[in-house]
Known about the structure:
Strands 1, 2, 3, 4, 5 and 6 form a six-stranded mixed sheet that branches. The protein is an alpha+beta fold and 174 residues long. Helix content is 21%, strand content 21%.
Amino acid sequence: VHVRKTWDMTKVRNLKDWMNDPAFVDVVVGRAFVILGVKNVEMSSDEWKWRARVVYQGSEMWSKSGRHILEIFKDVSSSPASILAARCALAVSLLKNWTATYRDAVDAYLQVLMETDPNIIDIVEPPKEWWPDEWYHDSNRCQAKYIRPAVPLELALNGHPKAGNLWDGHTDRT
C-alpha cells in the first residue's frame, strides 16, 4: 500500500481539519483495515500462503455535509457482491461436475486512480499500526502529533463504493 502510494501520507491532517476546510464542498471519510487469510488451507501447511489485503470500509463512511454517500457519488458498485457471485458460480460448477475458470487481476483496483473532483475529496484513516514515525513527537511512538490522522485516497481501494466502476472503466480503456 505504501509502495503503490494508495494514499498520500505526505498530506496528513487531522480529520477535523479536513472537515473544516472551506476548499472542499464535501469530504468523504472511510477507514482502511487489513483482512488476513490463508490460501491452500486445505493442503499441507508447507503449501499454505498467507495473504493480506487492505480494504476500505465502505460500509462505514461519512461525509462533511452529512449527505448519504449514495447522494454524493453518481455511480457506486458493490465488490463484495461480485466476489460472492463468483464463489457461488464456482460452487455450482463443482456440484455439477463442470469445468470452471476464474481470473483475477493482481492488485486490480490498485491500478486505478480515484476520480478527482475539485469540490470533493476522498480521505482515509490508515490503521494506527501503519502510522509513520514522523506522525509522532517521540521515538517511542507514544505521543502522536495527530488526533485522528487522515490522508487523501489516491488509488481505488477494494471496498470503496466507486472502486468497482472505476476498475470497469479502466479495463474498458485498456
